[in-house]
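To whoever is on call:

I kicked off a structure prediction for a single chain this morning and the downstream step that reads the tokens threw a length-mismatch warning. I double-checked the sequence; it's 954 residues and nothing unusual in it as far as I can see. Pasting both halves so you can look.
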Amino acid sequence: MQTQPDHAYPDHWEADVVLRDGATARIRPITTEDAERLVSFYEQVSDESKYYRFFAPYPRLSAKDVHRFTHHDYVDRVGLAVTVGGEFIATVRYDRINSEGRAASAPADEAEVAFLVQDAHQGRGVASALLEHIAAVARERGIRRFAAEVLPANNKMIKVFRDAGYTQKRSFEDGSVHLTLDLEPTAESLAVQRGREQRAEARSVQRLLAPGSVAVVGTGRAPGGVGRTVLRNLLDAGFTGRTYAVNRALSDDQLEIEGVPAFRSVGEIVAETGEPVDLAVVAVPAERVPDVVADCGEHGVQGLVVVTAGYAESGAAGRERQRELVRQARSYGMRIIGPNSFGIISTAEAVRLNASLAPHPPAAGRIGLFTQSGAIGIALLSGLHRRGAGLSAFISSGNRADVSGNDFLQYWYEDPDTDVVLLYLESLGNPRKFTRLARRTAAVKPVVVVKGARHSGSEPPGHAVPVTRIPDATVGALMRQAGVIRVDTFTELVDAGVLLAGQPLPAGPRVAILGNSESLGLLTYDACLAEGLRPMRPRDLTTEATPADFRAALAEALADDACDSVVVTAIPWVGENGVTEEGHGEVLAAALRDAAAKSEAKPVAVVHVELGGLAEALSAATSTMPGPAAGVSARPRAVPNPEAGRQPPVPAPEASGPATAAPLHYRIPAYPAAERAVRALSEAVKYAQWRRHAADPGRVPEYEDIDEAGAAAQIEGLLGGYDDPRGFTLVPDAAQALLGRYGIDVHPALPAPGPDSAVRAAERLGYPVALKTTAPHLRHRADLGGVRLDLANEAQLRQAFSELTGVLGKPEELQPVVQAMAPRGVDTVVRAAIDPAVGAVLSFGLAGAPSELLGDTAHRLVPATDRDAAELIRTIRTAPLLFGWRGSAPVDTPALEELLLRVSRLVDDHPEVVGISLEPVVVAQRGLSVLGASVRLAPPPARTDLGPRRLPSY
């Protein structure tokens, strides 16, 4: 009779992972129901691998072995299995041991660990993924170290332990290698984990974009229909691999559709041709998709593009159908684009894949485009085509049930054929991961994002997204912190994309303006000022300027060390007879390209008004120039200090990442309005500045007076067994004590329920004092008269107390307090909060109307560096008030930066601190005073970004 485990099945340990080759697998706890699977698995393991596992010949498992390896208490004895198609391909097990190596229970904190991977699946990164997950399980169960005995000849397993990045010790004992791993995550182990994640997810995308063969499942026998359209587009694009049509209703004599081999199933293709199918495009009704997925999975298909609709976008039943689709596909190791997808395109010459509903694939180029909307995807393809911009790849993710923008950021980060990444996003499934990946990618190539569904409750019905409590403006600020160029419309997305794809990054904000229209030049000048650029006085070439005049003026501007970029404005040239000259646009375009190609590397943009042929001619490729390192510049990009005058430029900082030397067609972007050109140029300037700063992101300083252990003990005592995720607000004394452990001193405020107690409090604190209410409806509302300042003696205090209670209410309603006066300064507010979608966010603004009414608040992700803190207080629009506006004395901004960093450290060190509000923080010429403080505690939210690798579950 089988006994049940001592603890409930831990279903939160289940996870889908991407392996080194890009395929997926499932990791889950082993249960008592797995006896047959375990035996079957073991029979497929070679004798050599069995010997390495058991240190002796071990041809088969005994009944006792099977019972032992399938019965766990999920605390002291744990086993995990990796499954594909429901069958085991690898297992890992730990047993808690004491200092003598014998079986033990808590508080023993060491466990012996052993792995076994089927030979056919070795080299796929299975053991590395298992180690990450079993280590996380062990830490959850109070185990701090793993011990392992490995035969010296088992080099693969030794390498798994050695490369994991954990602190470890090795010794040679009794003919085996004894390994001890400290399971506390380190910077190295986290870097190793994320590096493996990047390579695996990039490989999974590469398998989708570069298949050797494609089957369109659901190809109609007659012309028309979705499947037949996709097949036709595949053929028209010149796909270089093998193409198959699949329709289960084919007659015996119908062997071809559109001239390609036709079959009733994928299994029939494999059986008759002996060749695998790498990618399947699924275009059958939703109720038939599970059968198609099973057919594909059982015959080795690597990925699916599901254009079929009728999933989560259609309601609750469709949402469950979508979950089952993902579960089923992943169980076979397949990844999914879609469902409800418009398709995917790769313009690589070696592939030429158009597995989409777009009849005209884009030209080959250097832009990678990802969109969560088929309709917006069509519009973007059309807009980029009109502007002469080519793509390296296009992806319409549909409902984004599996493969997401994060996966493509992983791929494009190292893709040598992509210089610029454009994303249209309606939701962020894993915002923390997106921010991390976007920051890394933006360090080597621009990432431009337009975000739809920006307001609460407007998320697309087909997308599974975490709930967020922060406004969209905060999300935008955090994106910019990560180097993302965020724009508001898809028109701006195209405008920025064509500039970044064809021009070098500007070295600074100085803009030269030249053209044959004084009015258009002035409009451009005004637009530059509005965008924060530093325009030079426009140079008017007059309406009589010829293309040769434009060429000479542009060459002169590009050679001028006083400018970093050039905007050329042009209107039609009118001849002597008053008629616009035909072909003038093409001639002018040739002149501008010639000047730009021969001059120093600076970006050039053209603003034109009704100048026929100019935009098309400028976007046409007439010269080929070497592509840049890291895939971000058309020419070598100089980024001197904008304040350095005529100093020679220095090379742009090189971020770690892939490099490319592929040729790139040099194009000058043209815009029909000055505002559009200048907005795109402004985004390029800000991005270039971020790139320079990204080379030195700053550091998180250490403070010797921080009592991290004491704070942890206080938090543990306060939370106790509290499990309400909403949390609670600390009483003032507890909040002040906790903040004090991090060197944040709060000005004491003594309760004053009556005039006599107010006087006693003032005598204790010392005059002058402030009397203020703390009732929630009056807090921080000096405009309502709830604060009386500079009370110099008892008489003034008693009079203020009488006036306060006479006007605003009884003392028990007002909850008045007395506080010593702080030095005069600028009132600010510092906040930190944990958002379930983006994590810990640090915010800063001026107290009162600037932050509350005007929304003038800056935000940074935690942990903040010293550079983040410095930028935080300088980013708000009202920052001049801190630095001596209109002759006032500058305040102590270094003290303010230190306060921000201490708050960041507190929230980062203790995730139970889910909210901090310091208001007001009065920053004086020397020092600052925290006059009010509020702290909220709650059970720490789950951190999906710090655990072992796993795909999102829906």
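Update from on-call: the warning came from a stale cache, not from the record. Cleared it. Sanity check on the structure: Confidence is low (pLDDT under 50) at residues 1-5, 621-665.
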